[in-house]
Design brief:
This protein has helices at residues 3-11, 43-68, 90-99, 104-125, 141-165, 168-171, 178-203, 208-232. The protein is mainly alpha-helical. The longest helix has 26 residues, at 43-68. It is extended and about 95 Å long.
């Protein structure tokens, strides 16, 4: 008779007149015995209190900013006169910048949908527990994020400037259908620029988490680059200018 069976007989002696039975006796702890994983933390009350502090802090900062800076309100819109440049709110300026380089369906629907689906799928694309809760996840993660961010900061402005100077929709207007010039070719070019860091990591034998780190970095930094470009470097006619060299007295900083 095993040791566990001896313990069972001592704690729950066999008796046909009893109305209970011992289902199992384990020689280790289990989650059913209030013994959770060592790398977890109760969401209540600790995490909830931190979230509450962050919520109150953010609300306080917004309140202080609203007292210091008044919202810029223009005159009533005139349907007969369009402002020049007509810019979207800052959170849509990046999409407006994308519209300058490709078809509206691609810039306004397909690309944002891909970004949202990528963010939603992130927890399922990498389900490994190694490195969970740690910045950058792997030993090479910090270097991958740094070099990928530098690559994106250099390549995306170069793409914007080159496409502005040599627009595919103008160069190929009478050569290929517009869905090719405004849709297919910009998608191929932008996709290559986004996936190039992943291709380099694949050649170096990186793992899936490092691929996702590179992709996430490209997406976030690209969004920032396109937003800053549309906000600060687009002037009258939505053409590219230096912020201090805008024509017609336009000042992008006046909208801050």
């Amino acid at each position: 008779m095993s040791e566990i069976e001896n313990v069972e007989d001592k704690i729950f002696p066999r008796d046909e007149s009893k109305s209970y039975a011992l289902v199992a006796l384990m020689d280790r702890t289990s989650p059913q015995a209030d013994q959770g994983p060592e790398d977890t933390e109760f969401s209540f009350p600790l995490v909830m209190l931190w979230e509450l502090v962050l919520l109150l802090g953010t609300a306080f900062l917004l309140f202080i900013f609203s007292l210091i800076k008044q919202a810029p309100l223009d005159e009533i819109a005139n349907p007969m006169v369009t402002t020049n440049p007509a810019k979207a709110p800052w959170y849509f300026v990046g999409l407006q910048e994308l519209l300058e380089h490709m078809h509206p369906t691609l810039a306004g629907i397909i690309i944002p949908t891909i970004l949202v689906l990528f963010l939603l799928a992130l927890p399922y694309l990498d389900s490994r527990r190694e490195g969970k809760g740690k910045w950058f996840g792997t030993d090479r993660g910090r270097r991958i994020v740094g070099w990928t961010a530098l690559y994106t900061v250099l390549i995306m402005p170069a793409y914007i400037v080159l496409d502005n100077a040599y627009s595919l929709r103008e160069l190929l207007r009478d050569v290929v259908p517009q869905w090719v010039a405004q849709g297919l070719l910009p998608a191929v070019i932008l996709g290559f620029l986004v996936l190039l860091p992943v291709l380099i990591l694949w050649l170096k034998g990186s793992n899936r988490r490092e691929f996702l780190l590179a992709l996430f970095t490209v997406f976030i930094v690209s969004a920032v680059v396109f937003t800053i470009t549309g906000f600060l470097f687009r002037g009258p006619g939505f053409n590219l200018y230096w912020p201090w060299d805008m024509p017609d007295g336009y000042n992008p900083f006046a909208e801050l």
